[in-house]
Amino acid sequence: MTMSPRLLVYTAIVLPLTLAGCATAPAEGSIRAALPADAGSAAFAATDLAAAQGAYDAGDSAALTILLDRLRNRGVRPLDPDGEQTVDRWSQAATESGPPLRGRALGPGFLRGRLKPEELRATSQIFLAGKPTEISVAGGKGQPLRLRLLDAKANVVCERDPAYGRSCRFTPIFTQRYSIEIANRGANETSYYLVFD
């Protein structure tokens, strides 16, 4: 069987370009570590946020673009000015020009912070009775964080140690204020992303 000259030229030009494009596209596994099979939307958002920080720090604009698109498609939004500034920096460094992650009415929201080694940070959030809730936290690559959720009587509702890729999911029986504790159990300072959904 012989190939026509036109098909030969097409194969010689297009196939190498296609393969080159495949070689340069970031693989899913290189962007974010594998998550447990039962990971929820907050865990995916938290790990994507931590991976976006890693891509930004490494100057990997292609991976950062993919992660920003995924976060945007999930409706993830910052809940404080620090988060908005972080997303603005990422958007400027990415190879895309989509709308920023802000001003959305629905979808998970996140808070960003930093923890020194062995530091514990506590925040509080009111969760409504009967409304299913999920929270998750992720930090820098390989940084062991602990997530603990306590009710108004300081009873532990949920604990994840290590927290990466894992969520606390529950439906409150009563509307009340819950405490959320994040602890850095590692030897290095790390940033973290706490996601509420």
Structure, explained:
It is a single chain. With 197 residues, the protein is of the alpha+beta class. The chain has a single domain (37-196), classed as Sandwich (Jelly Rolls). It has helices at residues 5-24, 28-31, 41-58, 61-74, 81-93, and strands spanning 77-78, 109-115, 120-127, 133-139, 145-150, 156-160, 167-170, 176-184, 190-196. It has a five-stranded mixed sheet with strand order 1-2-9-4-7. The chain has a four-stranded antiparallel sheet with strand order 3-8-5-6, with no helix packed on it. A hairpin with a 5-residue loop joins strand 5 and strand 6. The termini are far apart. Keywords: Signal. Residues 77-98 are annotated as: Disordered. Residues 1-25 form the signal peptide.
Descriptors:
disordered N terminus; Jelly Rolls; 5-stranded mixed sheet; about 200 residues; 9 strands; 4-stranded antiparallel sheet; alpha+beta; about 35% helix
Q: What is the approximate shape?
A: globular
Neighbour order of strands in the largest sheet: 1-2-9-4-7
Structural class, by secondary structure, is alpha+beta
What is the domain total for the residues? 1
CATH class: Mainly Beta
Number of strands: 9
Mean pLDDT value: 77
Give the count of helical stretches: 5
Radius of gyration: 21 Å
Topology as H/E string?
A: HHHHEHEEEEEEEE
Most strands sheet = 5 strands, mixed
In helices, the fraction of residues equals 25-40%
Keywords: Signal
